[in-house]
């Protein structure tokens, strides 16, 4: 993402438009430029994360459908505990909350 900061008007011009520097919370034009670029990167990452979550939901639906078709339960609580532990080990307490949200999204109804 390319940005241009105009000190006279306290705006930064990006590929998506002009953003007032004050909206970044920065106190300098240089900091605003870094923040605007970083926010663009976060937006890109968020898009990828959302896509991966949607893919995870689809894969989970396949697993649930096959498990139920073979006479099993829709949800495997032992598997969910493995996932919770993995996220917790990698990301701490917040990882557990993230894993719970993912599991809730992926349980879905078939």
TrEMBL record:
Transmembrane segments: none annotated. It comes from the Bacteria. NCBIfam families: CM_M_hiGC-arch, PRK07857.1. Residues 29-110 form the Chorismate mutase domain. Its EC number is 5.4.99.5. It comes from Streptomyces gamaensis. Keywords: Isomerase. GO terms for molecular function: chorismate mutase activity. It is an enzyme of class 5 (isomerase). This is Chorismate mutase.
């Amino acid at each position: 993402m390319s940005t241009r900061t105009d000190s006279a008007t306290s705006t930064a011009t990006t590929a998506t438009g002009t953003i007032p520097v004050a909206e970044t919370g920065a106190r300098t034009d240089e900091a605003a430029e870094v923040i605007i670029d970083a926010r663009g990167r976060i937006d890109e990452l968020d898009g990828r994360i959302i896509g991966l979550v949607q893919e995870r939901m689809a894969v989970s639906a396949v697993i649930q459908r096959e498990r139920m078709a073979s006479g099993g339960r829709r949800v495997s609580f032992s598997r969910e505990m493995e996932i919770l532990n993995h996220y917790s080990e990698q990301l701490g307490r917040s990882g557990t909350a993230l894993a719970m949200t993912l599991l809730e999204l992926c349980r879905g109804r078939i």
